[in-house]
Amino acid sequence: MDIALRAILLYVFVIFVMRVTGRRELSSLSAVDLVLLIILGDAIQQGLTQDDYSVTGAMIAVATIASVQVVSSYVTFRSKRAKKVLEGLPIVILRDGRLLAENMRRERLTEDEVAEEMRGHEIASFDEVAWAILETKRPDQLHQEVTRAQAESLREVAHRPWPVNPSSWLMGQTWQRLLFAHWRVPYDVLRPHVPKRLTLEQFDESAWMGITPFRVSGLRLRGLPPVPPLSSFYELNCRTYVRYADRPGIWFFSLDASSALAVAAARLSYRLPYRRASIHVRDHRFTATVSNGRFSARYDGVGAASAPAPGTLEHFLVERYCLYAGEGNVRADIHHRPWLLQEANALVELESLAPGAARRRTTLSLRASAGCRHLAARARVTPRPSRAIS
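Above: the chain's sequence. Below: its structure in token form.
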């Protein structure tokens, strides 16, 4: 009975201490946290089982250790030198697809360990990685930073054509390493492939088709962290540009993704024409094979990135803040900061994908982007516009 009472008392006390020190779960332990856990475990074991070691003594030991941890956390927050000593600094272990042998040796890492970590993020080859950094931060901190960075995009809204409702968004994701490949299509050729209730928009007296390959990362539902490897995959979009009433948006002919789970979730929640596709990225080449065609591109951004100016083709193509689905009667608002675009050096091979005669493409307009964070609201059915009464 005495041991049971000790166990209950120490359990309640340790839960309180862990809340104070900020420890949440074993997967979020750093090296310092692990040392703390070992010492705490020993003190608690002594208080539970040793007759000559009182519960009060165990609680004093635990409280002392916790106090040291709180003080050390404050010191590392205030002092970069202390942080370096106690936690270390981030170290680059891979650059432009090549492992840095000296840094790997210093951290006692093997190539197999790095490859295993990459597979957990659905990265098949070192060639796909520009930088790999051995971080000192715990996984939960990284998730918090991804979550915070996506949500903080709501602070920048002046560029939007209509107000955003901060409470309406359902999910967040980050798009990385994009290519925007567009070509002109005659209006009459593309109009039959777009729902009648949507206005097919034109720029420079022409409709436009777009193909966009990219990598999705940090995919998550609101209030939840990303869950690797479910939160990252590759995607290829085939799209054009439409308007309903006063809201210009995007109409997707197809969305092909390498994740079966993402395909199922998007089809269910947004009624979008997602399909499972075989997508491979190697040596900076993005290759997708789908039921109605094939896409391959090797591309890189060239020069400085900048936001497209209003009134330009680039602004018309990328600065869109909603998507349409269903029969054109479903709309989902999206939010992101202004796109930063570069000229693109690209070699593109495209077979089919676009509907009908829209496949006959003229010279491609090519732009690249390092990426952008997105928030997507719940899909809603759009009301039909009221008829004017004369």
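The first helix runs from residue 2 to 21.
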